[in-house]
Amino acid sequence: MNPAILLVDDDSSLLKLLSMRLEASGYKVTCADSAERALELINDQFDLLITDLRMEGMDGMALFNQVQRLYPQLPVVIITAHGSIPEAVTATQQGVFGFLTKPIDRDQLLQTISAALASTSRSLGKWRENIISRSSIMENLLAEAEQIAGSDVSVLVTGPSGSGKELMANAIHNASPRHKKPFVAINCGALPEQLLESELFGHTKGAFTGAVNKHEGLFQAANGGTLFLDEIGDMPMPLQVKLLRVLQERQIRPVGSTETVPVDVRIISATHRNLEEAMLNNDFREDLFYRLNVVNLHLPPLSERPEDIPPLARHFVDKAAQRHNPKVKNISSAALHELAQSAWPGNVRQLENIIEKVTALSTTPIISDSAVKRALANQEQVIPNFNEARAEFEKRYLIKVLQITEGNVSQAAKIAGRNRTDFYKLLKKHELEAANFKG
């Protein structure tokens, strides 16, 4: 089906000319001679909105703001005879996909339209609808994800905490032939070794204290589908050996059982750790790494794709408003500007937390820049995820025992209830030198 474009301009001659050009290039074009008329015509069947900036009545940016509230995934290209760098920068920061000046170059127009259509999940299918993105870096990554989704190769998704690794894994599953079967996720760093083994492989009745019933593990739950192993870098070494055996033999052995069970699952794993470094430190098996890392997809931090911040922010406002504060309808342009200028060390997760907070506390229908400034000034109050909180506690604890023992590793390890080897691994993990604490 040819992509559908809604074209808006109060200049009837330009509207006719652009319409003819686009229809000649294979697009289905609907014309509107005002922003008000465009709002009457627009629906979720359009793939792109192209609008003039300067029009009688509602202008192009006001139309864009209305459309973003109604259809946040719809890309918008603005054309104007009054183009300027500040105007273009402002429009882009607010989430406008493209900004073209009159007279419009035909090739540039078609290239912009092609890029805009490639950026929308509507043109790429429902498989990636939960990933809100306009940036070229993410679009290239999603194109690669869609390409490898059709095969059964193992995928390792890397990237900083909060960058959306599970969403990417789920998107790959949705685009794969396995999409009608389960997508099952587990955080390998959130459970102790025995419980993690039982969750993955299952157990028989009486296999260990508390095993009062037979339990099918997640490999069996995901049979025919995809198993997502989050934070694979935190998996204990003994379980790494068992996981490797499952990948090689395509069968599992529940805890306490002498029989194996065949399984058919695709493995997608993720980590924020540097697994190459972990292999050098003997914290991660090299053979398992190469089994998991057939294809690597690296998610960039949010700071490297600031153009994604406005559509993400609007999406999170809508989501948070439904849950906490229905009177909130939108976020101001000035607030979006504040968000676009921030560093976001916690990435998309941190952005969502900030938006949820300001939406819940907002006393006005439009979230103001002052509310965002206050929230950004108190970013340390944003609740970290479990792994981040645990890592921070570990580091503070290690520093404390090293201070108490003045850098004596034997005494510090004894206080911590760890052997010296494990204690040294913890120090290395948190980049601490015992010598720096000697009196």
From TrEMBL:
GO terms for molecular function: ATP binding; sequence-specific DNA binding. Residues 131-360 form the Sigma-54 factor interaction domain. The keyword Transcription applies. One of its GO terms (biological process) is regulation of DNA-templated transcription. Keywords: ATP-binding, DNA-binding, Nucleotide-binding, Phosphoprotein, Transcription, Transcription regulation, Two-component regulatory system. Pfam families: AAA_lid_14 (PF25601), HTH_8 (PF02954), Response_reg (PF00072), Sigma54_activat (PF00158). This is Two-component system response regulator GlrR.
